Amino acid sequence: MPNSNPERPVSTDTTEVVPEHPEHSDTPDQEDSNDIVHEGSCHCGKVKWVMRAPRVLQCVRCNCSICKKKSLIHYIVKREKFTLVQGGDKLKTYTFNTGVAQHRFCKKCGVQSFYIPRSNPNSISVMPNCIDSNTVDSIELSDFEGQNWDEAIKLNPPSSN
Ligand SMILES: [Zn+2]
């Protein structure tokens, strides 16, 4: 862009907001018209978040070592559709194996209401059972064979919504 005022130096100010995950700038916001705002929290309420998603949630049930023990069901959402409202300082993180999955849970009540999944580390996996608002019509489940993770991720990779 031409600088119309040569007296004025071109700004080198870099205070503009840098996207948190520039590698995922493919669809800044496709304005999914089915999206509404869901509100969720942990059990004690210290951790609260909102996300934009449809009323019908396409979720994944995984049978890997931790998801099986925790009975976790996942709704994987793009980061720009998820906002942590409060409680970031109340979160503890548990990692194991590759360390890619960041299992976040409230250190007061122990509830994992969302986390960073290994399958989509640039997205957020939300636990739909932690949605408090009366905004979910139904949950549609598909299975992910997390017991054989390396095979399953090739055959049937869970996609981010
Ligand atoms: Zn809590």
Automatic annotation (TrEMBL):
UniProt KW keywords: Metal-binding, Zinc
Family matches, as InterPro entries: CENP-V-like, CENP-V/GFA, Mss4-like_sf
Gene3D superfamilies: 2.170.150.70
Domain of life: Eukaryota
Keyword check for Metal-binding: yes
Ranges of biased composition (kind: Basic and acidic residues): 18-27
Domain CENP-V/GFA: 38-150
GO molecular function terms noted in the UniProt entry: carbon-sulfur lyase activity; metal ion binding
UniProt keyword Zinc present: yes
Chain positions covered by the region annotation Disordered: 1-34
Polar residues bias locations: 1-15
Assigned protein family: Belongs to the Gfa family.
The protein's name in its UniProt record: CENP-V/GFA domain-containing protein
Species of origin: Diploscapter pachys
